[in-house]
Write a structure and sequence with these properties.
It is built from 7 helices and 7 strands; from the N terminus they run αβαβαβαβαββααβ. It is of the alpha/beta class. The chain has one domain: LmbE-like (Rossmann fold, 3-Layer(aba) Sandwich). The chain has a 7-stranded mixed β-sheet with strand order 3-2-1-4-5-7-6, sandwiched between helices. Helix 2 packs across helix 6 and helix 4 packs across helix 5. The protein is globular and about 60 Å long.
Length: 264
């Protein structure tokens, strides 16, 4: 009779076997740029995703040892590289992301010393990026496109090497590479900075960023005291806000599996 009573209880309280809870797998984003402070171009997006529970990593290729400014009065070399590394750590903390991954490559990638040293730097960069793809298994990777936003040679080379490594194979993860960009026509006519832009038709990924994201981005920018005065930061931050209008734009780097026998 006991099993009858239990059966009746189950009928009364609708006893059912609980459905297994399948939590979605945590997401990982990896941003790769050239110098400490370059993350400012996408910092609102990094803050946004970190606040939403995404694990966000920032990899910085060079040590920024040549970023001398009049106001900081820190000479080029090891002392400035140490300061800028600490500033990168401060910025990551303000954004709520993981501590920065510092490749420690030479600012300007030793290009002034000839092709041999430059190639050594690029080979080291390739191996470090591939290691991150393998160890972190990011869902997506973010960097710049061909122009590197400002046309800086280091920016262009990092973009090229990230793209090169991404295209060496069909990765399970990262599954997608994105270039950050400003749409053509969005920069104010009197912009004090000449930034490369991309036609909006190439920028189908549009991500809304909030005022809170911008506040974190601004706080992180203030960490880079060796590079900017508070007035310069305020002006550059406002320029980006005005140009992007609460939206971050990205170009997906497509991986096509469709075979064709013509370019047309």
């Amino acid at each position: 009779m006991r099993w009858i009573a239990l059966s009746l209880l189950c009928l009364l309280f609708q006893c059912t076997k609980p459905e297994p809870q399948t939590a979605s797998a945590p997401k990982t984003l990896l941003a790769i740029f050239s110098h400490p402070d370059d993350e400012a171009t996408v910092s609102p997006v990094l803050a946004k995703y970190a606040a939403e529970g995404v694990t966000v990593y920032l990899a910085i290729a060079t040590d920024g040892r040549y970023g001398v400014t009049d106001h900081a009065k820190i000479p080029a070399g090891d002392s400035l590289a140490v300061v800028r590394n600490e500033e990168a750590k401060c910025a990551a903390e303000q954004l709520g992301i993981e501590p920065p991954i510092l490749f420690g490559l030479h600012d300007q990638l030793k290009m002034g010393e000839g092709m041999g040293p430059l190639n050594d730097q690029l080979n080291t960069m390739r191996s470090k990026i591939a290691e991150l793809f393998t160890s972190l298994k990011p869902d997506v990777v973010v960097t710049w496109g061909a122009s590197g936003w400002t046309g800086h040679h280091d920016h262009r080379l990092v973009s090229t090497v990230v793209t090169e490594v991404f295209q060496t194979q069909k990765w399970d993860k990262p599954a997608q590479l994105y270039y950050s960009a400003i749409p053509t026509g969005n920069l104010p006519a009197n912009s004090p900075m000449q930034l490369a832009t991309v036609d909006s038709s190439f920028l189908p990924i549009k991500i809304a960023v909030s005022e809170s994201d911008y506040e974190k981005a601004l706080a992180s920018w203030h960490c880079h005291k060796s590079q900017y005065t508070p007035e310069t930061i305020a002006g550059m931050h406002q320029l980006l806000k005005t140009s992007l209008k609460g939206t971050a734009y990205f170009m997906p780097v497509a991986v096509s599996s469709v075979e064709k026998n013509s370019l047309f």
